[in-house]
Design a protein that fits this description.
Length: 175
């Protein structure tokens, strides 16, 4: 038994653990997006019903309306494309020695070959033994990029939602 097989007897199992961790992050981001969109859609008629008309009420509703297309873009199949999307993806190639292999943002920066080599060293070898393991790594990169895109769109959708809340607070104080 070699040292690397002693350290990593099951590279497939460990790769799937990394994949599931990244997939869970993406799923939680989807849930947070759905909740944000739900409350934004629920808040719009309440604002128009309670505060009636006024420039601040319409501004708050307009800001909440901006949340919905951002959320739909994040939940769309477009966010799941394996190719790079210029405005949503970070640059590939910014590799740091302290990158975490469980954080989608860090994994999304790697090219397929770079991640295969890094994970081969990280997990103690065995990943380059079969093409199947390299396919799992490709899947990890695809899911990490999707999770990163969704997170960025979620953060972007939070900006108008927060701005709408500030406008509503201003509307309450100016009453």
């Amino acid at each position: 038994m070699s040292v690397s097989s002693h350290l990593n007897p099951e590279p497939e199992r460990r790769l799937w653990i990394i994949h599931e961790s990244v997939l869970r992050t993406s799923d939680w981001t989807e849930i947070k997006l759905a909740i944000l969109m739900f409350f934004s859609a629920l808040e719009m008629p309440i604002i128009l019903g309670v505060f009636r008309e006024g420039p601040l009420s319409f501004l708050a509703v307009a800001l909440l309306c901006a949340v919905l297309p951002l959320g739909l873009a994040a939940l769309s199949p477009l966010a799941e494309t394996p190719r790079q999307i210029p405005l949503l993806d970070q640059r590939v190639g910014k590799i740091d020695a302290e990158d975490s292999f469980l954080v989608p943002r860090d994994l999304a920066r790697y090219t397929h070959l770079e991640l295969v080599n890094r994970l081969d060293r990280y997990l103690g070898g065995g990943i380059t033994a079969t093409r199947y393991y390299e396919d799992i790594v490709a899947r990890i990169i695809a899911v990490a990029r999707c999770a990163t895109r969704r997170r960025r769109l979620f953060m972007l959708a939070c900006v108008p939602a927060l701005a709408a809340q500030l406008v509503l607070a201003a509307r309450l104080f100016l009453r």
